[in-house]
C-alpha cells in the first residue's frame, strides 16, 4: 500500500531509508516547523508522505538517474525533510551540506560531490546555484502522485554526510540504506515512542539532528523543528509545544543555564528524556540538568558519522551505569581498543570517504573496522569511558594532555560555567595548555585562583598556563565548541 496509512506496516519493513513514515496515522502531526516563530507550520504524516512522493517523482521526471546526487543547502525546515526523504526514495543519493561553511569551502565540497541538482533556501540562493525552496521552480519540480520507493541493492549509497573533524578539508562520508535502517531499528527498541514530541535544533546536515529526525519519524512521534539553535527560542519551545524529548550537545544546555531566569520561568515538566552527545558532560552540568528537569531521564550518548549513532547501551547483566560512563556495546556492535583508540565494526559503518581512498584506508580496515580517533578506557565490567580525541590531544613536556580531562576538572570549580582548553606553542615544552572560561553569573575569581584549583585537583602538567575569561564560547556549525577558533585566539593573545 503506497502513499497511505497501513495498519500492518512497520517502519522497519522498509528497504529504503527514505520510506519511514507509514507507522503513524496520516492525520498526525509529523513536523512543527518553527522558522516563523509567531506562525509555525504543522505538517502531517500524510502530507509529508505525499510531498516525499511528489519530490521523488519530480526528480526522476527531470531526468535524474539512479545513484546521482542531490545536494541540500538549507537551514532546518519542512522542505529539507521532504526533499531528503524523497531523494532517497527515488534511488538518488541525498547530500545535506552545511549552510554555515565559508563560500570557498562550500564550493570545494560541491565540486567534490558533483551533485546533479542543488536544493537550497532563500538565504543561500546567492551562494549556490539551485532550486530554491518555496519558489515557482520548486513547485514545478514536484509531481504529485503515488510512488513506490526504489529497493536499493546491497551496500547501495543512500546519503553522503560531510564531516571535517579536526583535519581541515571536509570529507564526504558515504552511508548505505541498510546500515542506517539498522541504526533506526536499534533506536526503536524499548518503544513505543509515538507519544513523544522531540525538540530538534541541531542542524540536519549533521548526524546528531538527522539521526534523531529519522528515529522520530519511524517511531510515529512529532518533531518540533527549529531552524537553528537560539537559547531563548529553544527554552521557550519546550513549554509552548509541550516537548517531551530534548536532543542536544552539552554546550547548548550549558547556554540554557546561563539564561537561568528564562529557564526558571519556563514549565519544563513535560520533558521526560534528554539525550546528549558529541562531548563529555561535566558533573556540574549533569547536576544542573537533573535539578532543572526532575522528570527527565538523562542519557549521554556516543556516535560518529563514519560508524553511526548506535554504539553503547545498558549492561546486558543489568549492572547500573556510572553517570560519567557511556556504557556497554549494543547488540550488533563490535568494539576493541587498540592502544587506547576505539575501533568499531557495525552495520552502519561507512563505505568510505568520497573520492578519497587515501584517507579511507587510514581509518577503515579491509575487514570493516573503523578507527574512530577517540581514546577510551574500559573498566573491569566491560563498561566504556571516553577519555579524549587523538586529534585534540597535544604533548606538553613529554606528557599527553587530553583537553576534555582538564575541562572536566575546570567545570568542578564553583565559579566556572563552561571551559575549553587548547594548546599554544612553547619553546621548552613544545606546547602548553591555556583555558577559556565562562564564569557563572555573579562570580569573579581571578586567573590565579583558577590555576590553583587545577593544580590541586589534577597533575601539574595539566594546569592551564593562562586563563582567559570570556562571555561565551564560540560554537561551530554543529553547535560544538569551536576549538580551532579558540586556538587561533590563544596563540595571538599569548604572544
Question: What does it look like?
Answer:
A seven-stranded mixed β-sheet has the order 2-1-10-9-11-12-13, sandwiched between helices. It has three domains: 11-148 and 177-228, Rossmann fold (3-Layer(aba) Sandwich); 302-389, Luciferase, Domain 3 (Luciferase, domain 3, Roll); 394-494, ANL, C-terminal domain (GMP Synthetase, Chain A, domain 3), CATH 3.30.300. It starts with 28 loop residues before the first strand and ends with a helix. It is built from 14 helices and 25 strands. 29% of the residues lie in helices and 24% in strands. The model is unreliable at 1-9 (pLDDT under 50). The protein is an alpha/beta fold and 495 residues long.
Count of helices? 14
The CATH architecture of the largest domain can be named as: 3-Layer(aba) Sandwich
Structural class: alpha/beta
Helix % is 25-40%
CATH class of the largest domain: Alpha Beta
Major sheet characteristics:
7 strands, mixed
Per DSSP E runs of 2 or more residues, the count of β-strands stands at 25
Total number of domains? 3
Q: Between the first and last Cα atoms, what is the distance in angstroms?
A: 67 Å
Low-confidence runs of at least 5 consecutive residues: 1-9
Strand order of the largest sheet: 2-1-10-9-11-12-13
Residue-averaged pLDDT, rounded? 90
Q: Return the CATH topology of the largest domain.
A: Rossmann fold
- The Rg value, from CA coordinates, equals 23 Å
General form: globular
The portion of residues forming beta strands comes to 15-25%
Amino acid at each position: 500500500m503506497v502513499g497511505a496509512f497501513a495498519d500492518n506496516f512497520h517502519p522497519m519493513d522498509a528497504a529504503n531509508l527514505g520510506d519511514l513514515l507509514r507507522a503513524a496515522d496520516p492525520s498526525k502531526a509529523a513536523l512543527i516547523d518553527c522558522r516563523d516563530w509567531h506562525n509555525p507550520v504543522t505538517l502531517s504524516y500524510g502530507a509529508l508522505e505525499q510531498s516525499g512522493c511528489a519530490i521523488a517523482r519530480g526528480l526522476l521526471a527531470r531526468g535524474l538517474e539512479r545513484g546521482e546526487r542531490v545536494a541540500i543547502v538549507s537551514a532546518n525546515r519542512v522542505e529539507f525533510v521532504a526533499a531528503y526523504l524523497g531523494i532517497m526514495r527515488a534511488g538518488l543519493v541525498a547530500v545535506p551540506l552545511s549552510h554555515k561553511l565559508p563560500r570557498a569551502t562550500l564550493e570545494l565540497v560541491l565540486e567534490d560531490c558533483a551533485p546533479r541538482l542543488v536544493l537550497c533556501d532563500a538565504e543561500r540562493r546567492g551562494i549556490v546555484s539551485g532550486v530554491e525552496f518555496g519558489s515557482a521552480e520548486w513547485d514545478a519540480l514536484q509531481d504529485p502522485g503515488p510512488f513506490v520507493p526504489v529497493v536499493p541493492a546491497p551496500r547501495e549509497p543512500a546519503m553522503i554526510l560531510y564531516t571535517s573533524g579536526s583535519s581541515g578539508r571536509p570529507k564526504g562520508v558515504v552511508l548505505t540504506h541498510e546500515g542506517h535502517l539498522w541504526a533506526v531499528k536499534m533506536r526503536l527498541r524499548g518503544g513505543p515512542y509515538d507519544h513523544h514530541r522531540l525538540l530538534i535544533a541541531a542542524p540536519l546536515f549533521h548526524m546528531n539532528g538527522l539521526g534523531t529526525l529519522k528515529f522520530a519519524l519511524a517511531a510515529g512521534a512529532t518533531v518540533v523543528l527549529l531552524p537553528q539553535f537560539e537559547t531563548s527560542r529553544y527554552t521557550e519551545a519546550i513549554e509552548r509545544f509541550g516537548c517531551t524529548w530534548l536532543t542536544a550537545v552539552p554546550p547548548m544546555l550549558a547556554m540554557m543555564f546561563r539564561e537561568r531566569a528564562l529557564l526558571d520561568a519556563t514549565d519544563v515538566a513535560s520533558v521526560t528524556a534528554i539525550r546528549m552527545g558529541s562531548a563529555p558532560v561535566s558533573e556540574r552540568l549533569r547536576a544542573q540538568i537533573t535539578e532543572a528537569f526532575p522528570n527527565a531521564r538523562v542519557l549521554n550518548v556516543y556516535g560518529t558519522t563514519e560508524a553511526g549513532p548506535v554504539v553503547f547501551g545498558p549492561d546486558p547483566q543489568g549492572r547500573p551505569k556510572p553517570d560519567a560512563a557511556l556504557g556497554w556495546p549494543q547488540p550488533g556492535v563490535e568494539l576493541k581498543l587498540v592502544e587506547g583508540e576505539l575501533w568499531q565494526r557495525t552495520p552502519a559503518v561507512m563505505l568510505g570517504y568520497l573520492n578519497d581512498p587515501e584517507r579511507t584506508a587510514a581509518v577503515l580496515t579491509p575487514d570493516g573496522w573503523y578507527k574512530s580517533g577517540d581514546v577510551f578506557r574500559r573498566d573491569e565490567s566491560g563498561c566504556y569511558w571516553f577519555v579524549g580525541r587523538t586529534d585534540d590531544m597535544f604533548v606538553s613536556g613529554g606528557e599527553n594532555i587530553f583537553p576534555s580531562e582538564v575541562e572536566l576538572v575546570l567545570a568542578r570549580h564553583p565559579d566556572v560555567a563552561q571551559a575549553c582548553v587548547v594548546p599554544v606553542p612553547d619553546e621548552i615544552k613544545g606546547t602548553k595548555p591555556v583555558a577559556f572560561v565562562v564564569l557563572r553569573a555573579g562570580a569573579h575569581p581571578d586567573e590565579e585562583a583558577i590555576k590553583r584549583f587545577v593544580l590541586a585537583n589534577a597533575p601539574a602538567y595539566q594546569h592551564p598556563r593562562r586563563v582567559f575569561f570570556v562571555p561565551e564560547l564560540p560554537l561551530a556549525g554543529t553547535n560544538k565548541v569551536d576549538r580551532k577558533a579558540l586556538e587561533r585566539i590563544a596563540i595571538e593573545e599569548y604572544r
